[in-house]
Amino acid sequence: MQKEKRNKAKEITLESPSILYQDQAVLVVNKPSGWVVNDSQTTANQTTLQSWLSTLNYEIAKDHTLRSGIVHRLDKETSGVIIIAKTPESFAQLQDQFKLRKTEKTYTALVHGKVDPDEGGVNVPIGRLPWNRQHFGVLPGGRQSTTYYKVINYYQDLANIYSLLEVHPITGRTHQIRVHLKYAGYPLVSDPLYTGKKAFKKDRVWCSRLFLHASSISFFHPTSGEKINFSAELPANLLQPLNALQLVKK
């Protein structure tokens, strides 16, 4: 009972999502870290974006068959921009854009190590690990996946060097950026699944959450056809640990 109370208290203190833009067809939201995107049986006791959306006033806000208009996802600890459809027509149109890879997504990530060369890509298949269904990895027979990255800056503390990256996933597999960057030898800071237990424990001392932020997204408006872009700045819980590091000249 006490554990349940502590969990509820923790959920209450979570930052709420904010609306970056909305019109008759779309809603663009800045999702904070700590929010699961979709309702499901496994997220019954967690704070979900879909539950928050169902309190809003638009045509499919309470339509669970259309997931309240959610057309793509972010991991629970990932923050940033997410697109929501407000009508069945825009839901179908935006879904097609994601399937046909017409959207452009940019993430900001802080990883362990000095990424060299300072631009590159990972193009290897990803699948759910048969021996651990909560984790994904690079697997023969997995779904083909492509991620590009570019170094923004290097940072260091007393013992380690880090790279701040601009990341562009071409495909949209679950945990894709996290798995690909680990595969490349540069696991994300404070990643509970892919950094490794020892490094993760040390990371959480100075960075309280996964350092991955969906910083911008471009897509074609479902009714006007105009290409539009929305962005969200790094939140305080990423800026503060980043600013605690020493900037290293490239």
TrEMBL record:
Q: Catalytic site residues? A: 75
Q: Which GO terms describe its biological process?
A: enzyme-directed rRNA pseudouridine synthesis
Can you provide one Gene Ontology molecular function annotated for this UniProt record?
A: pseudouridine synthase activity
* NCBIfam families, sorted: rluA_subfam
Q: Which family does it belong to?
A: Belongs to the pseudouridine synthase RluA family.
Entry function: Responsible for synthesis of pseudouridine from uracil.
Put simply, this protein is called: Pseudouridine synthase
* Organism listed in the record: Candidatus Woesebacteria bacterium RIFOXYB1_FULL_38_16
